[in-house]
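Pasting as-is:
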Amino acid sequence: MITLYYRPGACALAPHILLEWLGTAYEAVNAPRDDSFLAINPSGAVPALQREDGSIITQCTAILNYLCETAGRQDLLGGSDINARTEVWKWAAFLTGDLHPAFFPLFVPFRYTSDPAKQAQDRVREAASVIVANKLTLMDNHLQGRSLFVGEGLSIIDCYAVPMLRWAGLMLPQGRSPWPALEAFYQRMLINEGVQTAMRVHGIDP
């Protein structure tokens, strides 16, 4: 059985949701925050997926791709349509490279300034909020008139967006309210059984 290492509410929520969609047998382990986890992933980050042979896959997008390929669910990667596959990987790159790191200064502002004063960290958060908001606007514009990110069926982008939209609701002063299409998408995802199961295991609220 494969093992998914996660931390509650982190981006590991995405492969956790995907595992539920796939119906793949797995064990979910809350990754310890000490040196013992470095034997699994030397960076100390989640998600990490331990395969049946004991080998480890890290990085969320790589794990999402591996799970779909091994389950024969290429439809979740865009299927046989080159344009749909391109859209999936475009949005995967956007979430990994643009939106996800834009949240880091909100979570750990002290890493982005050499000034220990609270006011300095508040300014870091303010600047980061603007960057995150700009990314969310791009996503909201894309979702106008759409129910899902790519095509008419679920893809890895839909589960990948869930943890980050949850962060937006928690970390931004205005929550998700300025982005109605994103908010509607998120509310639709919250009634998905796989999303509900993964969140329940994480012990988190929407």
